[in-house]
Each structure stands twice: as structure tokens, then as C-alpha cells.
Amino acid sequence: MAAGLTILVLLVVVAIFPWAFTSWPRGYSDTLRSVETADGTEWLFAPEAPSAFYLFGTDQYGYDILTRIVWGFRWTLGCVFLVAAARVLIGGAAGAIRALVRKPGRDRGISPLAGIPGFVIAFFAIYPFTINSRLQGWRLFLFQCAVLTALDLGPIVGSMAAKTSRVLATPFVEAASSAGAGRAWIFRRHVMPFLAEELLESFADQTVAVLQLVGRLGVFMMFVGGTVLTFDPPLLDSATGEIAGLIGLYRLKLLGARWMLAWPLASYLVVLAGMRLFASGLHERERRMRRLYDAR
To answer: What is the extent of the structural domain holding 160?
Structure first.
């Protein structure tokens, strides 16, 4: 867990202070530059391969890839953390309330939407609002986050309801209820301490799930913060430069200027690794604590 937490903290620092980790301002483009060599003046055209001048190279429009990645972290991490936190808070609250106000309901069968991947629903939900959207900046970002939050709430609600029901069925909670304790007091004193660890683990799991969903959307040109489409010439670009969006933009360069895809993809994998390590560490700590408790 320590390794994952360290990676995430470092990424958050980069996202908060992006200007401290790049030599070029945001939006800087250099499609043509000259270099003095022993043989005279040499002209370099974009895209440039990684070098001491551009550590990660440039893309076909002359944008420094390192600069785009560093500035894109804030949008990717912001979306992932915001959606994961919203899912856990809303789903956790709904599940706890469901368990408190009534007994677990009967099985209502399989939902007709259960067989549809969340990515498909998310794609068609945000597609009309993402390309050349009238919503700009934070408004579109928050709208997309709201749509992604609404997906996959069911499993969280069910998990929290089941966990809360198990806690409510324990002898010490039943004793407190028999002594006249109200539901609010029982929830605050007995249920919440048990749910806190569950909520943290659920948040860690949701960060991984949301990041994977954002990555899939990026491959299909549905970028967090908006997709900019021009018709003359026909070009697509990410309004925010978030990491998954860069992967989607540069995926066609796999057979040519491979560094354009390699660096955003590596950055995405670093974020994913940090979140997976953090989630795995939390689950392993829970298993150790459970074994220790059972051994007593």
C-alpha cells in the first residue's frame, strides 16, 4: 500500500503544480526550429523524437509531449477521484439507509441493463455533449463526472446495504436497540466504525474502475473536458489534454512516431499501477486484520 500511496501523492503534486515540472508553458508549439551543427544550420521539423531539448519529444503540431502530460494529470486525476468519491458517498449512503429503514429486499431478478457494459452507456450518454460542446471547461467536466458517477452505483448500494445489515444483526447492536438506542445513535456509534474501512476500500476500487472507463472513452475520442473537432482540416483534439485523451489522439502513431503514444500510455499505466497497488494494499491489510481478529 505504501508504494501505491507514494505514487499517488507524487502524481497529485505534479497535478497541482504542473508548471514546476516542465520547461515550456502550456500550449507552447514549435513546429520548426534550427540547430547549429558542425556542418552548418540544421532545420528540425515536428514531430521531433525525444532529445535533451524535448525529453519526451513533440507531436505533429509541435507541442511538447511532456508539457501536455504534466498539465493533463490534473484533469485525469480530478475526474477519477471526484467520480470515485461521489460513487462511494452516494452509494454508501443509499445502501446504509436502505438497510436501516427496512430489511434487505427480495431479489428482483436481473436488471435489463445488467448485460450492457458501463462503457457503452457512458459513451452514448456523453457523446452528444462532448464534441464541440456548448458547455466549456469546468461545466462540461462536472457534467461528464455526474454521468460517470451515475453508472455502477447499484453494486455499491448492494454492498453497503449487506454490510450494514450484518452489523445491525450483531448481538451488541441488538442489545443497544433493546436498551432504547435510536437508529441514528446506533448508526453513528456502531455502524459507521465498521463501514469506514469498507468505504475506503470501495473508493480505492472505484478509482481503478473509473480510470479504466476514462481510458476506454479516450480511445474512442470521448475526452474528459471535451473533444474539439475542426473540419478544415478535419482534426480532433482534446480540450484539456488529459492523459487518456492523449492516448486516443496519438494511437494512430503506433507505426510511425511511436514516442507520441508511448509516453502518454506509460503515464496512464503509472497512474493505474499506483491505484491498483493502493487498492491491493488496503485489501491485504483488511485480510491481515481479519486473520488477527479470528485468531484471538
So the answer is: 2-30+64-102+116-295
Ramachandran class of 43: left when φ > 0, alpha when ψ lies in -120 to 50, beta otherwise: beta
Q: List, for residues 10-27, the tens digit of each pLDDT value.
A: 999 999 999 999 989 988
Q: Domain containing 158 — which CATH number? A: 1.10.3720
Residue 128 within any structural domain of the chain: yes
In a domain, 50, yes or no: no
d(CA 91, CA 88): 5
Q: Quote the cell numbers at residue 284.
A: 491485504
Q: How far apart are CA 250 and CA 237, in angstroms?
A: 10
Single-letter amino acid, residue 195? L
The region of weakest confidence among 121-135, 136-150, 181-195, 276-290 is 181-195
**Could you give the number of structural domains in the chain?**
1
Instruction: Evaluate whether 69 touches 263 at the Cβ level (below 8 Å).
Output: yes
Burial 255-283 (b: 16+ CB within 10 A, else e): eebebbbbbbbebbeebbebbbbbbbbbe
Contact between residue 282 and residue 201 where contact means Cβ atoms under 8 Å apart: yes
Residue 37 within any structural domain of the chain: no
What totals of helices (H) and strands (E) does the chain contain, helices first? 10, 4
In a domain, 35, yes or no: no
Distance (Å, rounded) from C-alpha 12 to C-alpha 16? 6
Exposed, middle or buried by CB within 10 Å (0-12, 13-18, 19+), for 106? exposed
Task: Please say if the pLDDT value at position 293 is more than 70.
Answer: no
